[in-house]
Amino acid sequence: MSHSGAESDNRAAIEVTKDRNGIEQVILRNQRGASARVSLHGGQVLSWKTESGEELLFTSTKAIFNPPKPVRGGIPICFPQFGNRGSLEQHGFARNKIWVIEQNPPPITRDSSGKASIDLLLKPSEDDMKIWPHSFEFRLRVSLAADGYLTMISRIRNVNGKPFSFSFAYHTYFSISDISEVRVEGLETLDYLDNLFQKERFTEQGDALTFESEVDRVYIDSCNVVAILDHERKRTFVIRKEGLPDVVVWNPWEKKTKSMVDLGDEEYKQMLCVDGAAIEKPITLKPGEEWTGRLELSLSFGSGCETAIHLLSRKQRQSTNISTPVWALKRE
Fold it and tell me: pLDDT tens for residues 290-325?
């Protein structure tokens, strides 16, 4: 089957520009006017806008756009380490590296055509190999569909002669009206590791997660759909994921925010991080194996959006299948 039509549509919907540091950025647009902007610095999505131009991702007004420093906002990619759970720098090195555009990537199973998309590639440098001596190929596809859905598909292949393990997260900064006006659904009854209590394990007791103070948690073995309900803006973010068993929820709150040079003192009120992740049980790849982790973000508006998460029963949410499961590792 020829994909020339889809490729032509994609070319028309893609624009490559450069930021003030001369680093390339890729702007994806669909026919309705929605857009996404991806920087080759970190392979990081910096913007995701509706067709009316409303920004859906948070970026701090004090964000530092000066590689190799990470940018506070958007969707940084945490690899091969999340947080300080290892010997590497905070959240690993992938978010600080310059990626390249891949012109002819290997095909992705069950990824529909007709989207505006860009394929990026990261391989380790000599310096990377000194601090993390594992050879890999990290392919990232960012797609914007006709309905405005934003999809990120990561494929990490072991091209090393020995196994290696890693943790991973799409560290997504959502733009919200006010942290006191939102709640997160889909995490009820789950166990979580609380980073504010030395990663001690607790069980979520509420029907929904609301916010009155700093939160820094890793929810374990979550279902494949999570929702962020913003009452003031009457909209719901729906997060669908596959190959990503965990969910990180983070808001630094007032005290911690004041210690962060790249976050305004009051900006914690307008942001919430909810990440699709693989942290508690690191992914292990044998030589030649490939792991796939997929994230799909969508948005619904109106008074009925609060019931969006309830359209799927818990059982259905757990069985939702949109990409390669974490345990389905390909080997060549």
Answer: 999 999 999 998 644 444 555 444 434 444 444 333
In tens, the pLDDT along 9-60 reads 443 489 999 998 899 999 999 999 999 999 999 999 999 999 999 999 999 9
Residues 31 and 170: their CA atoms lie apart, in Å, by: 26
User: 1-18 pLDDT, tens per residue?
Assistant: 333 334 434 434 899 999
Which has the closest alpha carbon to 152: 175, 124, 118? 118
The tokens describing 14, both together, are 């893609």
3-state secondary structure the chain: CCCHHHHHHHHHCEEEEECCCCCEEEEEECCCCCEEEEECECCEEEEEECCCCCECECECCCCCCCCCCCCCECECEECCCCCCCCCCCCCCCHHHCECEECCCCCCCCCCCCCCEEEEEEECCCHHHHHHCCCCEEEEEEEEECCCCCEEEEEEEEECCCCCEEEEEEECCEEECCCHHHEEEECCCCCEEEEHHHCCEEEECCCCCECCCCCEEEEECCCCCEEEEEECCCCEEEEEEEECCCEEEEEECHHHHHCCCCCCCCCHHHHEEEEEEEEEEEEEEECCCEEEEEEEEEEEEECHHHHHHHHHCCHHHHHHCCCCCCCCCCEEC
Q: Is 95 annotated as a binding residue?
A: yes
| Closest among 182, 153, 203, 166 to 322, alpha carbons compared | 153
Cα separation, 33 vs 326, in Å, equals 34
pTM for the whole structure? 0.88
Annotated binding residue 201: no
Q: Is it the case that residue 195 has pLDDT exceeding 70?
A: yes
72 is in an annotated binding site: yes
